[in-house]
Design a protein that fits this description.
- The protein is an alpha/beta fold.
- It has a domain at 15-265: P-loop containing nucleotide triphosphate hydrolases (Rossmann fold), CATH 3.40.50.
- The chain is built from 22 helices and 20 strands.
- Helix 12 crosses helix 19 (504-510).
- It is globular and about 70 Å long.
């Protein structure tokens, strides 16, 4: 796969690629009929919640459109109407001038491909080959044509060597590319992407940008990742509370800092990180939430630049390994020491062993080697009781939210500790207050926004009074306002924190130390400042952030703050 220079990747104009006259996107007044025409669209979920209310929108063939807005604005609900996954409660959706029903609905589903946030939602066969062939076979194509499309799609996404691999053995980044291949094999006219770069390492994100950038059809992309959207899209439609608030060019949107702030889309703290990461004097920027707030801790590097080595450890691993039942090595010969109160990031490419390592730390998996927690060897019954001391917040909060109300959700853990009702109530109230969810006690967890669900999952862990909190991609799929709020909450917690993240901005804000993993091993143990300035390491380990920084610098220029 050809790799382009950062400058060309960051802003290679879609208008230049498709050659529209005068460099203008298609739209009303250019003798073009809409590909999609949405009129007075309203959608209500079975529980009565109105997700869309009177949406009017026209989308034109060949456009590259970003759909942006806060969590819960209605973005995913809207795009699911474009291929009939949702049907309107009121209003109409036209595709090529016809209502989406009957034969036109079937045609739309064959021509409009949608990449979901979680690739596991669309990978279901025994092998990658079968998954990629599924769509073309349902298009009624002959076997030789299906074979050709499967090979071509897998070559495009760089997975031809894994053609007969079971999808569940792939890394997350490989699964994302595999899911994209299942769409490309159907030769779609329209691609809808829902948070395509969420939880990807920088190398995979860059590959994804190149793959999507080469697509010649209509592109509709939902993302909270402003630099990624800026690199791909020309038009930005802002949704708010189930309606269309504004329709910008992409450059207009990113240049209007006050508008971004007013509508919960302000990326200023990320752009500040980008600017600071280019300086030798690394400092975490201040957050600017409504109301009083404190600056986050400044990551400190050791003067001699040596690896960080706590004097007294709360967590200690020595020569620790874990192998999965199928023989795959997840962690290999890891030695690790974490002091009480530290905030440590674990980084590395998708499939490096990060999630396996923290699963071992939490006692979910048991490997070989020495594991010591607070001076006691971890094995047998002690390992099974680590949940009392080490709490885990998963990438997807839905994986750990199962009670009918927020109060019951947060109370579940303390109840397992056999505490009195008054003690449980006190812990619940305290935990909800810490994550800014006081007053949500009787709300249904699955009716909350993504940011609120993430904070509820953190509250459920905090109510257990753990000594260590492990967070796996804590800011994935969150809008900027939710990210800032979560960062402020985490920075104020007096607890040992271990973060898995590909998000360099969040790492620089929250962590003083970075462990770099590669092929199941910890290959470096850095201060955060040293990690951010080791260009050689990041370029060879799938964590090269230069592409993202180039886009950030261009956005800063547009905002007049270069």
């Amino acid at each position: 796969m050809q790799i382009l220079h950062e400058e060309s990747i960051c802003r290679k104009s879609w208008k230049d690629r498709v050659g529209f006259p005068g460099g203008k996107a298609r739209g009303p007044g250019l003798d073009s009929f809409p590909l999609f025409e949405i009129r007075s669209l309203t959608f209500r979920y079975p529980d009565g919640h109105t997700a869309l209310n009177g949406v009017d929108l026209e989308l034109y063939e060949g456009e590259r459109i970003a759909l942006v807005g806060q969590n819960g604005a209605g973005k995913t609900t809207l795009v699911k109407h474009l291929n009939g996954l949702n049907m309107p409660s009121a209003g109409t959706v036209l595709y090529k001038g016809e209502t989406l029903d009957g034969s036109r609905l079937r045609a739309a589903r064959l021509e409009v491909g949608m990449l979901f946030q979680d690739p596991d939602d669309q990978l279901f066969s025994n092998t990658l080959d079968e998954d990629v062939a599924f769509g073309p076979f349902n298009q009624g194509l002959r076997r030789y044509e299906v074979e050709r499309r499967v090979v071509e799609a897998l070559e495009k996404v760089g997975l031809e060597h894994l053609r007969y691999r079971p999808p569940h053995y792939l890394s997350f980044g490989q699964k994302k590319r595999a899911a994209l291949a299942t769409l490309l094999s159907m030769d779609p006219k329209v691609l809808i992407l829902d948070e395509p770069t969420a939880n990807l390492d920088p190398k995979q994100e860059k590959l994804f940008q190149e793959l999507i950038g080469s697509f010649s059809g209509t592109l509709i992309c939902i993302s909270h990742d402003l630099p990624f959207l800026y690199s791909l899209c020309e038009r930005a439609v802002v949704l708010e509370k189930g309606g269309i608030h504004h329709d910008f060019t992409m450059e207009e949107l990113v240049s209007r800092r006050q508008y971004l702030r007013d509508h919960g889309l302000d990326f200023t703290f990320r752009l500040s990180c980008c600017r600071d990461n280019g300086n030798s004097d690394h400092r975490a920027p201040h957050l600017h939430l409504a109301g009083p707030s404190q600056p986050l801790p400044h990551p400190k590097s050791q003067e001699d630049g040596s690896d960080v080595k706590p004097v007294k450890s709360l967590i200690g691993l020595r020569d620790y390994s874990y192998r999965y039942p199928d023989g795959t090595t997840g962690v290999r010969d890891v030695s690790l020491f974490i002091a009480e109160g530290e905030s440590v990031a674990i980084v590395g490419e998708n499939g490096a062993g990060k999630s396996t390592l923290v699963s071992c730390l939490a006692g979910i998996l048991e490997g070989t080697g020495e594991y010591v927690f607070d001076g006691a060897r971890v094995s047998g019954k002690f390992r099974k009781n680590l949940w009392r001391s080490i709490g885990v917040v998963f990438q997807d909060p839905a994986d750990q939210l199962f009670c009918p109300s927020c109060r019951e959700e947060v109370a579940f853990g303390p109840l397992q500790l056999r505490l009195s009702p008054s003690e449980v109530n006190g812990l619940v109230d305290e935990a909800l207050a810490l994550v800014r969810l006081s007053g949500f006690e009787n709300r249904v967890p699955h009716h909350l926004s993504a940011g609120e669900r993430k904070r509820l999952a953190i509250a459920a862990v905090l109510a257990m009074r753990p000594r260590v909190m492990i967070l796996d991609e804590p800011t994935s799929n969150l809008d900027p306002r939710s990210e800032e709020l979560l960062c402020e909450i985490l920075s104020n917690l007096d607890i040992t924190k271990v973060l898995i993240s590909h998000d360099i901005d969040i790492i620089s804000l929250l962590c003083r130390r970075v462990l770099v993993m590669h092929h199941g091993m910890i290959i470096r143990d850095y201060s955060t400042s040293d990690f951010l300035h080791d260009g050689q390491l990041v370029s060879i380990n799938g964590i090269d952030y230069t592409f993202k920084n180039a886009c950030c610098r261009e956005i800063l220029r547009l905002q007049g703050d270069a």
